[in-house]
Design brief:
By secondary structure, the chain is α/β, with parallel strands linked by helices. It has 2 domains: 151 residues, 3-Layer(aba) Sandwich (Rossmann fold), CATH 3.40.50.2000; 181 residues, Glycogen Phosphorylase B (Rossmann fold, 3-Layer(aba) Sandwich). Helix content is 35%, strand content 14%. The chain has 12 helices and 11 strands. The strands form 2 sheets. A 6-stranded parallel β-sheet has the order 8-7-6-9-10-11, with helices on both faces. A 5-stranded parallel β-sheet has the order 3-2-1-4-5, with helices on one face. Helix 10 links the parallel strand 9 and strand 10. Helix 1 packs parallel to helix 10, helix 2 packs across helix 3 and helix 7 packs across helix 12.
Length: 354
Amino acid sequence: MEGKQSEHILILRFSALGDIAIAGPLVRAYAEANPDIRFTMVSQSAMEPLFKGIENLNFFAVDFNGRHKGLRGLYRLSRELRALTPSKIADIHSVTRTMVLKLLMKFHPIRFHSLDKGRNERSELTRTKNKILRQLPSMMSRYERVFNEMGLAVLSFAERDVDVPNGKSKVAEARGKEVKHGGTINIGIAPFAKHKGKEWPLDHMEVVVATLSEESRFAVYLFGGEGKEATILQGWAQRYSGIVSVAGKYSFAEELDLISELDLMVCMDSANMHFASYMRIPVLSIWGATHPYMGFYGWGQRAEMAIQDNALDCRPCSVYGNRECYKGTRICLHAITPQYVVDKIYEAVSGNMR
């Protein structure tokens, strides 16, 4: 092959799950817009369903708990990536691992293009004193800057009609028949987050689940992980009618199929917000220590669908929600009442969200 046909771009993004999901539509868009260039997404194996279905887009799974663990594992990974004969590497993660990979590959004619995370800008939003509250560039736009620097299409991503899987597979149909309880409005609820600064109190969310269960028009599906999360959600499903827990029961691809059949997802500032956004499902998200201004809001979601207490001058206090509340109260989350969230759900499903 000659010219552009020989070009091969590797894209590095190892975590977090939500940030990989944010990258999904963008990576697919660039692959579709540049059919003469080969792309390989390098990420966690579980995320492969987000990048399937495009001929010139391949997937390479990393294994940081196995063959790519530690410095020796990174050296092995660098050799495996070099064997793919890339011409350029898009580092849309910019963490220690990708920086080490860059050093290990510096003697090879491979150009790295790295993400600017805007760490200084984010610190202005999260500091306790003299906070500067303003909208920062979205993570999607930061990713796009990297691709634009590589000489790919410069058309604004917002102007593109991005193709993503519609998820309406026979698997989704089968799961739908299995779990539906006759409700005509399908609502997903994902009450957990990786960090407590982003997680609404579970007793508040249980009140929301109980309230929705009283209306036959709703079929509610609970999303979460295996173990403790699945046990809690199964308990809710047993206590309330019309409620089904899908936590820990299906593969990631099957969960995406189920999400694609929802009318609304209710969740935290979490990976599920981005999975639903990827599937073009409206999301009602609850925010505490973090803030949509940080740039991690769901792709294509309307600003009014973010539930947050804008009266608190201490928000946001954390980029990722992993800092302890310096007031010791997590008032940003506890002040949001179950009835307020229920009312927002009613507005969202009726199309009256303002």
